[in-house]
Design goal:
By secondary structure, this protein is an alpha/beta fold. It folds into four domains: about 1-115, Nucleotidyltransferase, domain 5, CATH 3.30.420; about 125-315, Hexokinase, domain 1, CATH 3.40.367; about 335-410, Winged helix-like DNA-binding domain superfamily/Winged helix DNA-binding domain (Arc Repressor Mutant, subunit A, Orthogonal Bundle); about 430-545 and about 570-645, Rossmann fold.
Amino acid sequence: MQANQASRIQSVSHSSPHLLADIGGTYARFALEVSKGDFQHVRSLLCADYPDFYTAINTYLQSLPNLQIEHAAVAIANPVDGDQVSMTNYHWQFSIEEMRQKLGFDTLLIVNDFTALAMALPRLGPNDVQQIGGGEARKQSVIGLLGPGSGLGTSGLIPAGDSWISLGSEGGHTSFAPRNEREIAVLRYVWQHFEHVSFERLVSGPGLELIYRALSEQAQVVAKDLSAPEITQHALQHSDPQCEVALEIFCDLLGTAAANLAVTLGAMGGIYIGGGIVPRLGDYFAASGFRARFEEKGRFSRYVAAIPTYVITAEQATFIGAAAILDAQLKTLNTEPGSAILGQIRRIRPDLSPAELRVAEHVLAHARAVVNDPIAEIARAADVSQPTVIRFCRSLGCEGLSDFKLRLASGLTGTVPVTHIQVTDDDSALELGAKVLGNTASSILQVRNQLNRDMIERAIQLISQANKLEFYAIGHYGVVAQDAQFKFLRLGIPSIAHTDSRLQLLSASVLSDKDVVVISSSSGRLPELLEVAEKVRERGAKIIAIAASHSPLIRKADVALIVDHVEDVSTHLPMVSRILHLLVIDMLAVGVAMGRNPGAASLLQGEADERLDEARPTRSPERKVGAKTQAPGVSLASPLAKLTSHSR
């Protein structure tokens, strides 16, 4: 029977079923999506029964028929930033890539659980939600999401053309503010145990227990040892007055948290309530003080009264969202790899030599195997020499095979891709501006993922030791050279910018082996710049090239700083790519400044921040370059760790 079942599952639209998981602080839920929206083998496991995530997921896999699972998406109650996952409300922790290899999956996508739930909202029907109170959703408007469970998850959806952008948020940790004397008494009790009281401390399962204990102390009665489900049950059955009041306060506080999210996001598309508590309250929640508290917003009461609120009743909503994110990721990897290294390889195939093309085809066909194979095996499989493999890696801006494998592994286990949104004739001035800024920010993130720490460190070292520094660029990129000259002259380094090809050749002819030339070119193919690069090499000077991967200029450079952003200069000026080249100059200038003069580093970083403020997503202060100063002569490894903290 299991064999027949396996055969039936394999025959549906997915080439193999997709494994989906929803991991909370109490339960780990699993399912197989055998075709779009068809979830089978749904099972919940108690997290406390398993020592780690691998044991839980492996237990589920062993309960299935003999199936080949290649792709999996896990929604987890935790921020997801990088490879290492450490759950906030539970002790499980793991490396995404190590877990993928251990499980033998081609793809293991880990996303925040409320990011996944948010992506399910546009796919829910009228029977999947229950509206609480009035209001009417505006089409193509921002949607807010929150839900209490082991914690208080929050997220949002922003419309982007025919798709949506999900916000990764930790809004549950915003500071709690009481609205009446009863809530002030609860706050005083909680202050005895926690220095900072967030909404999550109270609007969650553990929070409901805290509220109950606070009310019991206030009533001078001994609090029973009750869990959140037991408190809820007593409240619904009217069998314990403290439990009843606790649940009333819980619903009121959720109304305040939901209203805060609504006004913060401008969520005219509605506020949705998920999580493991509210959907189980049924009619009680509809009759609670939630909606009344939601609309108590002072001068903005009319504003929030127009926003509808919904309880998500669909049992598999998180699976729906996780499946949608996984489908988008697989489609991106297969058809539009963006700036990931596989995308670079696809773009440069026409320019490769026959031997390098064999390496490229082998990598594209066996990407997962290449991550683990030694160089001898890769060379044998591609029928090339080992030096050819190394040349191929370096042409992509990698230091060598090890660095190439790191970037390849990162691209194969990435999260939801950042997309480019096309500007159209119908856009308003506001929409046009938002798209231009959004596309610039997207490109910055893509280049950030290409950064090679070793290359940047080598470039900074060359510049720091140069007797003279020259910057060459032509046409629209002349401003990059001029900006660089200004920055490095302020650092006390003899610098000059040449934007005329004749002057570049004349200047290159008098260089020495102690000089460094930085050449900025989007394509890396301009004959004038290639000619001057040859002259620089003849004179023994060093070349730092800022250009597209695998371009002729990159091959001639001593240090390659890859910037892959294709713009059609026949129809408009190169806007985004010039900003990217300017940012690379900023990184080099700040890196040099931090090794020579900490004060100058702060000044230069201030200028870089001004350029980035409107283009990049907000980052925490500790990640800002220049947050710490450094004495002259100290190793550049520490500032470079900040400059390239997200490059791998």
